[in-house]
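Q: Can someone sanity-check these two? First one:
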Amino acid sequence: MNRFAQAGAVLAIAALAATGANAQAKKYGSEAGWDIFISDAMGPGCLIAKKLSPDVQLEMGIDATGGQLIGYMALYTKADANVTQGQQLPVTFDVDGQPFTGTATAQQMPGFRGGSVPVNNIDFIYNLAKKHKLTITPEGRKPIVVSLDGTDAAFKSLRACQEAQKH
């Protein structure tokens, strides 16, 4: 099994607004069902977000703080996720049948709970654009299956957003 995330730093994702979007983020655009945001708290960095249901949102993005681009994935729910702030939780990601492991750091925000996983290989995030299905399985919890339809267009906008932050 591949080691999904080895970055030592944990990304701090700001509280989600009532719409599910990052509260400290400015909307950059939308592509193929994904919203693209700029987050000044991440360097600035850019992220794509998609509501999987009215109560669940997935985010994938780039943290540009510290001068080095680091990717991350985050999953949030309005339901009781049975996690405490800062709790470390092993998680498996299956990308079109290829498993990766990582450690999510739990986050609790007003109305939402979930966690984020830093990714030390930025290309892993960008390469999801060509994939079809992502299955996220936090240890001891049910798997969450995410269609990656539309990620190619969304990641093109994410790259453009991130490139625009350099200027």
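And here is the second, same format, sequence then tokens:
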Amino acid sequence: MKRPRRSEPGRRVRRVASVIREVVSQALITDLADPRMAIVTVTGVDVSADLRVADVRVSVMGDAPQQEACLSAIQHSRGHVQQKVADALDMKYCPVLRFHLDESVKRSVGLSALIAQARAEDEAARADRIRRGVEPPGDEDEGDAGEGNEDAGGEA
């Protein structure tokens, strides 16, 4: 009887991906002395079901030219990193490593900056409304909620 295909990777695939992530991270941090290397983080590894290919996602801090230069340095040292992974894995075939830039960290930092900017603008607008007398100073809403809780506490 055939087993149904699963959409999520099996335990062995996850274990291999975890080992690859650790080994590649360590190799990029300690073994490579390329001046093009910047602050690099391995954000994830996706291993194919047949364990022949591993897509390694890396995040590189810096602008686009720095990221491309760092990715080029990683590609240049792929053979060395591949050998480290092969030494760490006890398998007949070592997955072929493919490196990709992961933009998710950069997008996350950008979104955080936008949120901080929106909060600052909101606070500035509130301060302006208070200055013009349109809005009363202080946190009136929180004060009312606090008084209500004291009354409820006294009755119980």
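A (reply): Looked at the second one. The mean pLDDT is 81. Residues 11-102 form a domain with the GMP Synthetase; Chain A, domain 3 fold (CATH 3.30.300.20).
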